[in-house]
Amino acid sequence: MAVHLVFPPPVLRGRPPHSSRSRHFLAEALLCNRPCNGVHGHGAAMELDKPGPLSADGRSSMWRMRLTFAAALILPGCEDIAREGSETMQLSIPAFAASQPIPVQFTCEGEDRSPAVEWSGPPAGTRSFALIVDDPDAPAGVFAHWGAYDIEAGARRLDEGAGNAAGAPFRQARNDFGVQRYRGPCPPRGHGVHHYRFKLFALDVAQLGIGHAPGIAELERALDGHIMASARFIATYERN
Question: What are the two backbone dihedrals, phi and then psi, of residue 197, each rounded to the nearest 5 degrees?
Fold first, then answer.
């Protein structure tokens, strides 16, 4: 059974509603039955249409996204929902399983080290990778923990601690803690389970050219138009 919903698309992190990042995040919020700018979604096949403003010649623009999936396949954490790009690229973290708690050594309550991350199946022509880790359950909205980019095309793994090491063979964006390195899960005590999204992007450029110490939002904007494929891995953490 299909469900047809119509409402204005939100602007996320100050970005226009037509951006791929905005469409992707809204899709996840809807399909995972989580709030996104006050909007809650439900599992089912769905289509979203938003007529844009009339242009000078009277033609209207359309913002459209279609997502179809079997409601029975929705899993906790929604790690298989709203994927961008090729479904052949796979992302894994050897130290813990998807939808499971992140071990304490990778959090602010432990060593706060970045976990090893492995991937396979990027599309032919990939020239670099970018990795973003964020928390959509933070009290003030999506909170970015790590942004790594200009990762060489031949790489298939980032070792444990790569996001904390000086002189890493890739660039790192400034996260929402204000530092250019990995910072692990550190949700408010008693705030419930938070979901941490590890998002890998295969890109068609070798370097993004976004200057010194970009923020995660700037990194996300730079990805637009260059994503060939993506994969994601979601795990959880809670502080009692």
Answer: -100, 120
List the one residue out of 85, 199, 220 whose CA is nearest residue 131: 199
Q: What angle do CA 220, 226, 228 make, to 5 degrees?
A: 110
Helices 216-223 and 20-31 pack at an angle, to 10 degrees, of 100
CA distance 145 to 155: 21
Helix (H), strand (E) counts: the chain: 2, 11
Q: What's the CA angle centered on 199, arms 196 and 175, to 5 degrees?
A: 70
Residue 36: DSSP 8-state = B
| Residue bearing tokens 């909007």 | 39
User: Are the beta carbons of 16 and 61 closer than 8 angstroms?
Assistant: no
Dump pLDDT digits (tens) for 50-76: 334 444 444 433 333 333 333 333 333
Tokens of 24: 């992707």
Q: What is the pTM of this model?
A: 0.68
Q: Report the amino acid identity of residue 230.
A: S
Q: What is the CATH number of domain 83-240?
A: 3.90.280.10
Residues 219, 232: Cα–Cα separation, whole Å: 17
**Pairing state of beta strands 128-135 and 157-158?**
unpaired
**How far apart (Å, rounded) are the C-alpha atoms in residues 240 and 238?**
6
Q: Which tens digit of pLDDT belongs to each residue from 11-47?
A: 334 444 334 434 443 334 433 433 333 333 333 333 3
Domain boundaries, the chain: 1-81, 83-240
**With contact defined as beta carbons under 8 Å apart, do 128 and 206 qualify?**
yes
Q: How far is residue 65's CA from residue 52's CA, in Å, rounded to a whole number?
A: 14
